[in-house]
Design a protein that fits this description.
By secondary structure, this protein is an all-alpha fold. The chain has 6 helices and no strands. It holds the Pfam family Hpt.
C-alpha cells in the first residue's frame, strides 16, 4: 500500500486553506491525536487479555476516530476488523488482528512524527 494510506493530512490542509495558519492548526491536530502514543493500545490489549472485549472495542473505536482524521486509512481498516472480531466474540482472530492494528498504529505515529518535524517543528516537545 502507498504511504498516503498510512498517514496523510494533505486533504485536511487543503480544506483549512493550505497556508501557514492551516499548517499550524493541522500540526496541533496531529500532535494532539498522537500525544497518547501507544497508551490506547496498551489499554485495549489489557482489556482483551482480561476478556473485556466491549471495553477494548470502545478504546479502539475512539482511537480510530482520532487517528482517522489524519488520513490513516490502513489503521482505520485494521481497527475496524479488530472491533468487529471483538463484537462477534471471535477470540481466535483477535491476536492476529490486534498485531496488525499495533503495526499500523506504529507506522502512523512514525509518519506523524516525521510530518511534524518537517512541517510544524515548534509543536514537538
Amino acid at each position: 500500500m502507498s504511504e498516503v494510506s498510512i498517514f496523510s493530512v494533505d486533504s485536511l490542509l487543503k480544506y483549512m486553506g493550505n497556508d501557514d495558519k492551516a499548517r499550524a492548526m493541522v500540526g496541533k491536530i496531529v500532535a494532539d491525536a498522537c500525544a497518547p502514543g501507544m497508551e490506547p493500545l496498551l489499554l485495549a490489549g489489557t482489556a482483551i487479555r482480561e476478556g473485556r472485549f466491549a471495553e477494548a472495542g470502545k478504546i479502539l473505536h475512539t482511537l480510530r476516530g482520532a487517528i482517522g482524521t489524519l488520513g490513516a486509512k490502513r489503521l482505520v481498516s485494521a481497527s475496524l476488523a479488530l472491533e468487529q472480531a471483538l463484537l462477534g466474540q471471535n477470540p481466535d482472530q483477535v491476536p492476529m488482528l490486534f498485531a496488525n492494528v499495533e503495526a499500523e498504529y506504529r507506522l502512523v505515529l512514525h509518519a506523524a512524527e516525521h510530518w511534524l518535524r518537517q512541517n510544524a517543528s515548534g509543536l514537538l516537545g
